[in-house]
Amino acid sequence: MRAEIARPNPKSTINSYRSFGYNLSTAVADIIDNGISASAKEIRIEYNWNGQNSFISIIDDGNGMNKEELVIAMTPGSKDPEEERNEKDLGRFGMGLKTASFSQCKRLTCITKKENYSIIKRCWDIDFINEVNEWQLLDSVSDNSFLDNVNNLKSGTLVLWQKLDRIVGNAEANNESVKNAFYEEMQNVRQHLSLVFHKFIESKRIKIFFQNEEIEPYNPFLLNLNPKPEMGLPEGFGNVEITYFILPHMSEIGKSEYEKSGGSLGWFQQQGFYIYRGDRLLVAGDWLGLEKKRDYSKLARIAVSFSNENDFNWHLDIKKSTANPPIEIRRELSRIAKIAIIKSAKIYNWRGQKTFSESSIANYEPLWSDEKNREGIKKYKINRKHPIISSLLSENSKLAGKALKLLEENVPIELILSNQNEDPAFHELEKATDKPSDDLISLAVELYKIKVSQGVPESLAKQQIMSSTPFNLFPLINEYLK
Known about the structure:
The protein is an alpha+beta fold. It is built from 16 helices and 15 strands.
């Protein structure tokens, strides 16, 4: 039944490996996975800007490889993805070294040394392959100083990226705009690694150095905050564990902590699920289509952990940057997400400025309410039943009514949204206070006297005032109403 052996064309195949959708950060993380799988204790990322001669290197002190193992590692598809993995193995397809590297560079050199073995090297050069149209690994390195970096180790591996055409292109060394973009990308890599490998760094299983500076972990659940986040009880479903975390309100932690805590993307973007495979973060801050990102849910972050046995159930991709949960787990994720979002909303709306539609409190009178007009557009209305507003209207109903309508028709929504988008800290860092101001107490007392003078029973007058915004936020005011 055999027909022909159809060998893939080297030139077209190796160039197709460049299009798996990596960015620089996910590509570097994929190389670090290999170091962790090789039992490395230290991994160092170094880079040098020199125009077209720039390079990026990732060196680890792991087990290293002998010649046979190196050739296998450099061979595309060298591992069977269905093969059972060691729990420490962060790989799956045997493609990461090649696809991650080729996504960023045209020359990949791997230098390695196994304990009690000599140092060896192999190189893929896409320009050379395009020229000869053959799968020819080169026994070559551009500079022998890279060999010294590995030779100084008991064992380890160095991955060297040169001809960085995707990052540098044909730029000369004096091209400041490309140089700055290169450095900016490398800083993005640093932030990405501090998040993706935070569990490894926190548990001291690995140290990652970036230009000789040790990377500090960024834990997205902000367990070092004061006050501490609320942590739900971990729930297990097979070998999947789900735990929600509800962060404290931004106003509770101060401006400097607020800026650090938001991470590189900010509080809004970092809400949602954090999917881990063997302690390695795959997906960060995504509701996986189960919920939408909203302001009131941005205090909710949910950790989901599974082992590498579940790769196919989660449809893990080669880049290890996307994962889709199995149907039975999606139901549980949706349930826990709703719990976390409700808890987040309660904290985020701490001012108690609820609308009629949101409030379930009997006789509660907010200052503002919202309603939809015929076109389905939300409009914001001042609540005429609020005790202060109703008193104002009773004194001068015509002029006061016009003034209220003028305010309603000119709510500065665009200005508020602009400020929120520019920097949410403008609004979110305003601290709640437990003590009412003297002016607010005086206003409540004056309103109480007016109601009593109008024949309203004292107990009812107190109830009407204390169930309205903002008096309801300060139970102490009740003691002054007598």
